[in-house]
Design goal:
214 residues, 20% strand, rod-shaped
Length: 214
Amino acid sequence: MKMDNLRLSSQRFWRTLNQVNRHNIGSAPSSVQAVVIALVVCVMAIVVWLVLISPSMTKRSALMSQERVLIDDFARSYQQLRLLETRKSQLTEESQALDARLAQVPKSAPMTEIISMIHTQASQASVQVQSATVQPMDKTQAHIIERPMMVVATGDYHALGRWLVAIDSSEYLLMMGDYELMADGASNRLRLTMRLVSYQANNQPVSTAQEVKP
């Protein structure tokens, strides 16, 4: 019985609701008016969501994604900038160290004085210099010029050793190389042939691409 009454009440309510329009809504029961107002509010909420809120949220999501990309790009750029500054500082230090080393290279190589020193040291060490000749310049680098000499000398083992130490300890910048040591049958002494290289600053530096290679 209660179910029948409930079903009849529902039917009357929906019939009344279907008959409501903008002309008679004011005289409709309050329950019908409340349902109509709720339906209108729901429709307006859906329209507002579709027209305003949803596009705004989509745009906001796109902006947030773009913001994250920009933040990541900035972080990478900042890290690269720090690495660049570190490398720039290292290059500055290396350049200063190179300048300091180049400042120690003599502006010219006094070959006559060097050969005189070789003979003097040989005489003091009981070594006989057979020849000491300046060779043509065969290697020019970006900042220095090599001035080679070929030296031939004879003496006993210890005398030659003392002589080489004296040359190496001299005030001149010299590099020894291309040794050839053999017995001198005529004098029962050792015959030493070696290449000495003196260095001087290049007053007209050339670029690396223009360096003269041996």
